[in-house]
UniProtKB/TrEMBL annotation:
Its EC number is 4.2.1.109. This is Methylthioribulose-1-phosphate dehydratase. It is found in: Cytoplasm. Residues 31-228 form the Class II aldolase/adducin N-terminal domain. GO terms for molecular function: methylthioribulose 1-phosphate dehydratase activity; zinc ion binding. Gene3D superfamilies: Class II aldolase/adducin N-terminal domain (3.40.225.10). It comes from Metarhizium acridum (strain CQMa 102). GO terms for cellular component: cytoplasm. The gene is MDE1.
Amino acid sequence: MATLQDVEKPRLDNDAADRLITSDNPEHPANLIPSLCAKFWTLGWVTGTGGGCSIRDEDLVYIAPSGVQKELMKNTDIYVLSLSAQEPTLKQRSYLRSPPCYKPSQCTPLFLAAFTRRNAGCCIHTHSQWAVLVTLLLEAQGPGSDKVFEINNIEQIKGFGRGTTKQGNLGYHDTLRIPVIENTPHEEDLTEYLEEAMDRYPDTYAVLVRRHGVYVWGDNVHKAKTMCER
């Protein structure tokens, strides 16, 4: 669903705008996003039109649209915006390219938070049932122990970085901590809570959303994808 914060009128003429998403390179963001979303669909991480992905290439941000079945997405469905062209609060967003028949993703302000606050190169949002289950298990433990997921002595955490100010990845005996925020009726309303979690846990690369899913980001597509797969 689009919001009043999204200005869908493109700043470029149609030909120039379409050149932003036209490339034979499979690693181009406009080609990678549909490819990744199709993969996530096969894994059951995204179903219907839920979930999404965004990639930052220097100043340009490529964003999956709202309302598209993830396994059917094409490069022509992708939104593009310039980070430097946005007003400081990022609440009034303008797009260099807007597909004619879709709406901007409600995940957009959360993706932008990862790019501006963490200098991430990619942010992925899934509705993974495993992520949802973790938040339910924490909820069952009661108040005080339901705000952060912690795990150690397990091989899979070795795929996570130690933090934005630290070198290398976590070790087997280290503890991975992922904050949990409460869900909201509208996706974009999660933004301030995601940002608060980022501030409170400066070394985290992910935030769980209770009864909803997870946001994962990384320096680039490879790192975001591998941490999401963990």
